[in-house]
Write a structure and sequence with these properties.
By secondary structure, the chain is an alpha/beta fold. The protein has helices at residues 31-46, 68-71, 76-81, 86-89, 109-116, 143-151, 153-162, 168-173, 186-198, 202-214, 220-234, 238-248; strands at residues 7-12, 15-20, 52-56, 61-63, 98-102, 105-107, 119-123, 127-129, 165-167, 179-181. The protein binds octanoyl-coenzyme A (CO8). Keywords: Lyase.
Length: 258
């Protein structure tokens, strides 16, 4: 495959790092960027040397939304027949945890991308919003669904219908954001969290992510059943034996990766 042009892709220890890089448009999410991000995510998901993934942007913007210039003249038929947002749906199939490290603007599709990740660590200067309504449209890669599930109806309706932007403290208060950190510590904090995750029993990490995600799709009964089967399955992994025997022996566990 050609080297990506809209992102930087690197591995730091056992963490895969994707940095969105379209500085002239505040990381607007165009087709090429969508394709390149998804290719990088799939490669990390398949790479035994990677245990968790971080997606970040620049200090000024995580991403300011879908690329408005690219979309402006599209017709319904063009959009319908060539669903340019379809690649983003594939992010759901990534089984390793993905952390969004958000500084600056996370607007429209940028806010939706952050919400698609497993959790968000945000800098003090991060701003979140779904301003699509101001452009005569609405969220298009899951914002209406994920925001409603993440923060409830009242706040989702407020943000999506007024298009107002919220600061990081409001985003934290409503539950969109897991942690708020000083801007100069953002990437380091996200990498450390990913590094911690990448050090655990790999199948258990994937099972835990899968189990939490079931909570958004299934009834409590179904979700409990799913969790219990995964919990039982964890006892078929070497990491479970290592983790428990290490505890009993009062030593640190060493998880083999695979
Ligand atoms: N698309 C294209 N270009 C953009 C975008 C964007 N979303 N956002 C910013 N840019 C460009 C600007 O046009 C400008 O370019 P230039 O220097 O050539 O004039 C450059 O980035 C810098 O932007 P500003 O000069 O506007 O910088 P400010 O600091 O004055 O303002 C803002 C920053 C407030 C972030 C402002 O740029 C802004 O309001 N941007 C648009 C935000 C927005 O409306 N986002 C929603 C887009 S629609 C959407 O996301 C639909 C979601 C559906 C699914 C998405 C799938 C990918």
């Amino acid at each position: 495959a050609d080297a990506p042009e809209t992102i930087f892709v690197e591995r730091r220890d056992r963490v895969g790092l994707i940095t969105l890089h379209r500085p002239k448009s505040l990381n607007a999410l165009n087709r090429q960027l969508a394709r390149e991000v998804l290719e990088a995510l799939k490669a990390f998901d398949a790479d035994d040397n990677v245990g968790a993934i971080v997606i970040t942007g620049s200090a000024r913007a995580f991403a300011a939304g879908a690329d408005i210039e690219e979309m402006a003249n599209l017709t319904f038929a063009e959009f319908y027949c060539d669903d340019i947002f379809a690649p983003w749906d594939e992010l759901r199939s990534v089984s390793k945890p993905i952390i969004a490290a958000v500084g600056g603007y996370a607007l429209g599709g940028g806010c939706e991308l952050a919400l698609m990740c497993d959790f968000i660590i945000a800098a003090e200067d991060a701003q979140f919003g779904q301003p699509e309504i101001k452009l005569g449209i609405l969220p298009g890669i899951g914002g209406s669904q994920r925001l409603a599930k993440a923060v409830g109806k009242a706040v989702a309706m407020d943000l999506i219908l007024t298009g107002r932007t919220i600061d990081v403290h409001e985003a934290k208060a409503v539950g969109m954001v897991a942690r708020v950190v000083p801007s100069n510590e953002l990437l380091q904090t996200a990498l450390e969290a990913a590094h911690t995750i990448a050090g655990y029993n790999c199948p258990a990490v994937r099972m835990a992510k899968e189990a939490v995600n079931v909570a958004f799709e299934a009834s409590l009964t179904e979700g409990m059943r799913h969790e219990r089967r995964l919990f039982q399955a964890a006892f078929a992994t070497e990491g479970q034996k290592e983790g428990m025997h290490a505890f009993i022996a009062k030593r640190a566990p060493v998880f083999r990766h695979r």
